[in-house]
Amino acid sequence: MAILVGYLEVVVAFLCFFVLSYWMKNKNSSPIVKDWPIFGMLPGLLLNVGRVLEHTTESLIYGSGFHEFKGGWFPNSDFVVTSDPMDVNHILTKNFANYPKGSDFQEVFEPLGDGIFRSESDVWKAQRKFMLSVMHDKRFELFLKKCTRQKVEKGLIPVLEHVSKLGIQVDLQELFQRFTFDVVGLLVFGVDSNSLSVELPLIPHEKAFDDMEEAVFIRYLLPKSFWKLLKWLQIGEEKKLKEAWDIFDRFLYQSISAAREKLISRSKSPVEEEEEFTFLSAFLADQGGQTDYTCENSNKILRDHAFSLMAAGRDTLSACLTWFFWFVATNPSIETKILEEIKEKLQENGNLRFFSTEELNSLVYLHATLCETLRLYPPVPFNHKTALEADVLPSGHQVPQNTKMLISFYSMGRMHEIWGQDCLEFKPERWITKQGGIMHVPSYKFTAFNAGPRSCVGKDMSFIQMKIIAVALISNYRLQLVEGHPVTPKNSIILHMKYGLKVKVTKRFG
Ligand code: HEM
C-alpha cells in the first residue's frame, strides 16, 4: 500500500510540474517561495531543479536565513533550511545532542554500513577518537606526504606532460578524481588502483564508486516509498546501485585481504612501518579498542571503516581542487600572487621536492585562496539533522519534534550578513590579517568542514595534500580554460562541476 502511495506521489508530482510550469511560464511570474494548495512548495522546487543550490540561497535570503519548506499533502516532505550562523552554532554545537542525522539519512546512505558517517552516540565517539589518533600520528603524516608527492610525480605530471606535448584538452576534474581515488586507497589499505595514468584506464571499482554516489543522490531526491519500490523490484537506479555496490564491495574485501597478508608477511621493523602507516594497519593493530580486528569476521567492520574514509577523502578533495584551479585559471592576478609566494617562500623553480609542513604553512596566500574556494564552493553543500525534541532556535524559530533540518553550507558562503556586501566576489585577501597571517573565522560561519563535535577530522590533511598539488601544478604549468566550456555545479551530494573542467595545459619551463 505504502509503495502504491509512493508511486502515485511521483506521478502526481510530475503532472503538477508540467501543468504548473506551463501555467507559470505563461503568466511570466516566478515567486521565490510560493506555497500552493495540495502541492505546497514542490512546484517551485521542481521548476528550479537544475539550480537547487541557487534556489535554496534565494529562499534563505528572502526568509532572512530561515526557510520552512512545505511539501503540501505529500507525506514526510516538510523540512526547514537555515543559514543563520547562530542557529547553526546551536544545532551543530550547543545543542548537538538534540540533532542527530536522523533515520532518513541512515536509510539513504545505507551503503556506507556502520562507519563513522552513519554512527551515532558511543559507537561514533569511539570511531572518531580512533580516527583522530591516526590523523595525529607523525607516521601517518609522513606516509600521507609521501603518497601525495609520489602520485604527483608518477601520476599527475606524466599526464600533464602528455597533454601539453600533444596540445590536447583534458578534464582536470577527472584527473583530480583519479588522483584522490588512488591516494585515498593507498592511505586506507596501501593499495594503489593506478587509475591516474596517461591511458586514463577504466577502473571498474572506481566507476562503481561514482555510480553509487549518483544512485544515492537519486534516493535523496525521490519520495522514500518510491525508491524503496525500485529497490524491491530491483529496477532503475536501485538496480544500478546494487550492481555497483557488489563491485565496490569486492574491491574493498580484496583490498582488506591483501592488506592483511602484507601486514603479516612484512618484517616489523619500525622503518617499514613508518613507510606504510595505513588506516588499516592502524585498525588491525588497535588491540586496545573494543573490536578484535585481527579475526576474519571483523572484515565487515573494516569494510565499513574503509568505505567511509574513501567517501570522506576522495570527492571532497577533488571537488575543492577543481573549483580552486578554475578560479586560478580565470584570475591571472591571483595566479601571479601564488607564483610569487611559491618563489619567495619555497625558492621553487619547477623542481619537485619534499616540502616540510612548516614550508607549506608559510604559503599564506595559497591557504587564503583555498579557503576562499571552500567558502564559495564547499564540497559538501548541505548538512542534515533531525530534531529529537522540540526546540527554539536562537533566531526565535520554533522547531517541532522530528523536524528535518538542512543547513545550507553553500548559501552560508553567499550571505551579506556573514561576509559583507562583496560576499559574491572571489577575494583571497579577505582571509589575510593586517599582520600577514590567516584570519580566524569561527567554524559556525565558515562551515566547509562542518562545526562542533562532528567537524571534519581530515581538515589538516586536506590542506597539506591540496598545497602539495597546487605548488607542483602552478609552478610547472599554465592552465587555460577551453573557450566556451560551461562551468556550473552539478546536482549531487558533493559539489562537483556538471561538465568537468576542460583545460589546455602549457609548460612554464622548456
Ligand atoms: C576539502 C576537503 C574536505 C572537506 C571540505 C570535508 C568536509 C567535511 C564535512 C562537511 C563533514 C561533515 C559531514 C557530515 O557530518 O555529514 C566531514 C566529516 C568528516 N570528514 Fe571531511 N572533508 C574533507 C576532507 C576529508 C578527508 C581528506 C578526510 C580523511 C580521509 C576526511 C574525513 C572526515 C571524517 C572521518 C568525517 C566524519 C566526522 C564525524 O562524523 O565525526 N575529510 N568532512
UniProtKB/TrEMBL annotation:
**Which keywords, in A-to-Z order, does the entry hold?**
Heme, Iron, Membrane, Metal-binding, Monooxygenase, Oxidoreductase, Transmembrane, Transmembrane helix
Q: Name one GO molecular function term.
A: heme binding
Q: Which Pfam families match?
A: p450
Transmembrane residue ranges: 6-24
- What Gene Ontology biological process does one annotation of this record name? lipid metabolic process
What cofactors does this protein use?
A: heme
SUPFAM superfamilies xrefs = Cytochrome P450
What InterPro entries does the database record attribute to this sequence?
A: Cyt_P450 (IPR001128), Cyt_P450_CS (IPR017972), Cyt_P450_E_grp-I (IPR002401), Cyt_P450_sf (IPR036396)
UniProt-annotated binding residues for heme: C456
Family membership:
Belongs to the cytochrome P450 family.
Q: Report what the protein is called.
A: Cytochrome P450
Q: What is the lineage of its organism?
A: Eukaryota, Viridiplantae, Streptophyta, Embryophyta, Tracheophyta
